[in-house]
Amino acid sequence: MFIIEYDGSNFSGYEIQPRKRTIRGEIESAIQRVTGENVSINCAGRTDKGVHALAQVVNFHTSSRLTPEKLKSATNANLPEDIYIKDAIKVPDEFHARYSAKVRIYLYRLLKGKSPLRRNYVGEYRFKFNMDLLNEITQVFYGEHNFEKFTKRDSGLCNIRRFEVYEEGDEVHFEVEGNRFLHKQVRMMIGTALLFSRGKLNRDTIIRMLNGEEGRTALAPASGLYLKQVIY
Hints:
Elements: E1 2-6, H1 23-35, E2 42-43, E3 52-59, H2 68-76, E4 83-88, E5 103-112, E6 123-125, H3 131-138, E7 143-146, E8 157-168, E9 171-178, H4 185-197, H5 203-210, E10 225-231
Parallel strand pairs: 3-10, 5-6
Antiparallel strand pairs: 1-3, 1-4, 2-3, 5-9, 5-10, 7-8, 8-9
Helix pairs in contact: 1-2, 3-4
């Protein structure tokens, strides 16, 4: 198992795509150069284009006799500067980075304004914040729902255990914790909560959407999203 940090700014996302630079493509290529094996890695959560990771988890099977620490060092030497393996751990054969995960935690950083220096690492927001309304609406997402109205292409039950909002300097941070997440779900939850805080959407509509009915959503920019932690 590798625990990996990466800057997603210059990638087309995690999953391999033809003729595009991807997180998975870079990691598999680096492992192949070290071990001589064509490995296929599993990940805890496939991040979109521009999304970052503080602790992405991947796993793979190898016949290499290198210790985890040496495998980590050798693979890091073959990775670009925007990907770094923070830790390498030997795990049981049945371990799977995605299916063994119990909890995933995402962090979203929203900047009150604009910043040329931080634009790839925050979502820039030019509207006023109402923290009381944000803290109020995040509570309705708690529990198990089918988030099909908060995703671009799939469906399924997800259990949201925590959805916190707090100020951090000139940024507003969101932390979302759940057992699983659908495609773009976190960004759509945050974008929709921001619509509510501006008076563009009412609470009842969001509740109806969580019950499968139609409603208006918004998608927060990818640049502010980080896969923060995966718990097994």
